[in-house]
Amino acid sequence: MTDCASVARLFAPHGLILRGGFNFGASEDAPPGPSGEPAKAVLLVGQAGAAPWPHFQRWLADQPENIENPLDTWSNLVIGEVAAQVGARAISPSERPFMPFQQWAMRAEGLRSSPLGILMHPEYGLWHAYRGALLFDREIVVTALEKPIHLCDACVGKPCLKACPARAYSSSGFAYQDCLTHVRGQNGEPCRTTGCLDRNACPYGVAHRYPLEVQVFHMAAFAGLPMRD
Fold first, then answer.
1. How many Cα atoms within 13 Å fall on the side-chain side of residue 56?
2. Where in the sequence is the domain holding 181, given as residue range(s)?
3. pLDDT, tens digit, for every residue of 90-115?
């Protein structure tokens, strides 16, 4: 059995945390583990707030200026190194074929989606992320979690659906192209310099809200714009 506490300690120096996990059922179509046979278990790896940012920035300072997808690259390196130490296979949300990370996260942590599509965490609100996962050929010991409160159920005004100038989010879903066109356009400066207005309008998890420089970084990556110094 895998000791989750010892795995978590390997990620702590990088600002990353374990985000739950589970054992695959015998009849499930599990992805390959490190042996190439269907994995027996998965542990999700991610962040709460912007804890990994200073660690990522120190690494980035030593990289070429034109490195592509730097945050994914850093995450993959860190998670890959830990995977090698614990005998697991590391996978990334951006890796093809895409793995059902959101479904795994809902199963592992009991979270539900917010109106923005981001899973709502009872402590972190919308300010958290999943950076990768570890697949094992052996089962893991998982502590049973109580079903968390879904904060969106208690939010009457839904300010997250009212702040976006492009009205990119609605009950119909996310209008990706409308959002992208707005952010890249002449009226998209607030989004480019302060982050997603709808996400920032959410009243939950504000203590974990990403700092301005982190939000600007993510918005530039989303829109394919030059990163700000």
1. 20
2. 155-223
3. 999 999 999 999 999 999 999 999 99
Query: Given this model, what pLDDT does residue 144 score?
Result: 74
Among residues 21, 153, 179, the alpha carbon closest in space to that of 91 is found at 21
Write out pLDDT tens, residues 138-192. Answer: 999 988 778 899 999 999 999 999 999 999 998 788 999 999 999 999 889 999 9
- Helix, strand or coil for residue 140? strand
Cα–Cα distance, 22 to 43 (Å, whole number): 7
Residues 113, 201, single domain; the answer is: no
Would you say residue 110 lies in a domain? yes
Query: What is residue 122's DSSP assignment?
Result: T
Domain count along the chain: 2
Instruction: Enter the pTM of the model.
Output: 0.93
d(CA 129, CA 120): 11
How is residue 156 written in tokens?
Answer: 């009457």
Closest Cα partner for 219 from 198, 202, 201? 198
String of b and e for 4-23 (b: at least 16 CB within 10 Å)? beebeebbeebbbbbbbbbb
* Strands annotated E in 59-199: 89-91, 112-113, 119-120, 128-136, 169-170, 173-174
Asked if pLDDT for residue 229 goes beyond 80, the answer is no
Same domain flag for 140 and 188: no
